[in-house]
Each structure stands twice: as structure tokens, then as C-alpha cells.
Amino acid sequence: MPEQPSALRACRQGCGHQARAGREALKGRSSGYAVLKARLDYVKRKTTLDAVDLKTLSQFILLGDPSLRPVQPLKPAVEGDAKAALTERRREARRAAHVLEQSIYVPEPIPGSARSSELESRLREIGERHGLPPTATISSFAGVWQGSGAMPKVFEPPPRQHLLHAERDPEAPVCTDVIVIVHEQAGTIVSVDEVEAR
User: Fold this and answer.
1) Residue 113 sits in the same domain as residue 184
2) Beta strands 160-167 and 177-185: pairing type?
3) Among candidates 160, 171, 168, which has minimal Cα distance to 198?
4) Considering the entire predicted model, what is its pTM?
5) For residue 81, what are the domain limits?
6) Residue 8 pLDDT > 50
7) Cα–Cα dist 6/18, whole Å
8) Structural domain tally of the chain?
9) Which of 17, 117, 131, 143 is buried most deeply by CB count within 10 Å?
């Protein structure tokens, strides 16, 4: 049998690797475990690893949280109890849909006058720590309830977001826009993130 071109062989190996990871995920495994198991199975099937095999292994990585389970494992149904299992799955789906339907917050702008002077000065301090000038623009947003009916008591309003925006070094040959995202819940700073665009 003629040797397969290495590109075709790598493509087939890669597709098989993805399929093995997918099968593990469908069993309810975490995404990290699924990728690791697929890679280990791939290595176990080979007696020796050539350059194409090593390249295939190195290209299949997981970008994201390895602890997430993309598929919830199905509870084994008792034989002859398929109708009850189907009814339970539908009940679970309706319950999940109801929770999603009742938990809709849409961010809406908050006028600058609604920010307290204390919060304003704290935001300016955070901006300075991130290298923003005192003239940085601040835009604030709050999640406004959009669900049907009253907000369920189990849901807390999401943190308010405050965006501080400015150019980091206006004199530089390449303009760099910086946005510092501050999440605030009832006056407490929950998190601070920075995004840069060139």
C-alpha cells in the first residue's frame, strides 16, 4: 500500500483526535480530561512517534477552563423506564429555561451625576494605577432587570461596570487605547481588568 502524504495523514489523525475528545466529553467528562484522554489514547496506539505525530499532538490544545463539563452525563434509565426518563429530562429543560427567562439583565448607561464623589475618586485612582491620565473618560453601566414579572429573590443584581478610557501615550508613534473595566457591587470594587487596543 503506498505511503499516505504526511499532510493527509496529519489531517486524518487530527480528526480522529477531535472525535475521541468529543466522545469523552459526551460521557460527561470535563473538557480537560477529555483532551488528555484523547491524547493518551493517541500515543498508546502508536509504536513510535514520528515528526508528524508529534506535530499533531502539539497542535491539539485546550483553550479554556479544563474543569468545565460541556455535557451533563445522562442518568442511567432503569430498563423499561424510558418514558419516565424522558419526562424527567423535559422537566429539567423547562426548569432551566424558566431560570434563564427570569434572569435577564441588560446593561444600560448610568449618568455621571449618579456616581458618588467617593466612587468617582476611587475610579480615578484605579485609572492612575493603570497609567491613565486624570482626564480619562468614565462610562458607567448597570444591569437593568428585563425579565417577565418581578425579579426572583434568589438573583442578585449583577455588578455595575465602569469603563475608564484614554490613550496611554498620545505622543507615541503608535496610538494605544486603553480601557480599564471596573466591576463594582454596592460600593465594593469586585474586579479590575485592562484591555489594550493598538
Assistant:
1) yes
2) antiparallel
3) 168
4) 0.45
5) 75-103
6) no
7) 18
8) 3
9) 17
